[in-house]
Design goal:
Chains A, B: It is found in: Cytoplasm. Two copies of one chain form a homodimer. Chain A is of the alpha+beta class and about 80 residues long. Chain A is built from two helices and three strands; from the N terminus they run E-H-E-H-E. A three-stranded antiparallel beta sheet of chain A has the order 2-1-3.
């Protein structure tokens, strides 16, 4: 069976506190990297799906499981 | 001060067990999504850096902090 690859990006929405991103920002400063003004951390999820899976199915996967749409936004690209 | 945005992707290397990805794969199956053949989960880190930061500095950030190069690969794009 052939397959298609989809890459989903999940990020915290603007305004939602991102402690992981903040930790990275502090750590970069502590390592001597100057000028780091902001860091946001999110997830990438690479899916191998059956060929022909429609984008609406991927949207459903995002809405039901991959992203918490109250605090996270998502987007995906078919590779 | 103007700034530049860099997006870093960190994924587990092929062959390294990815329990988070496996958990997502099982959960998608349990939700009734068929044909999910593989899932890999990684990180996206969006950096706001001082304008003119060179790519070699970003590489250094990745090597020293953002990726564990023993088990993870990374790539980045300047936005």
């Amino acid at each position: 069976m052939t397959e298609m690859k989809v890459r989903v990006f999940v990020m915290l929405k603007t305004g939602v506190l991102d402690p992981q991103g903040e930790a990275v920002r502090h750590a970069l400063g502590a390592l001597g990297f100057d000028g780091v003004q902001g860091v946001r951390q999110g997830k990438v999820i690479e899916l191998e799906l059956a060929d022909g899976t429609s984008e609406s199915v991927v949207t459903e996967m995002c809405e039901k499981l991959l992203a918490n749409t109250v605090i996270e936004s998502y987007r995906f690209e078919v590779l």
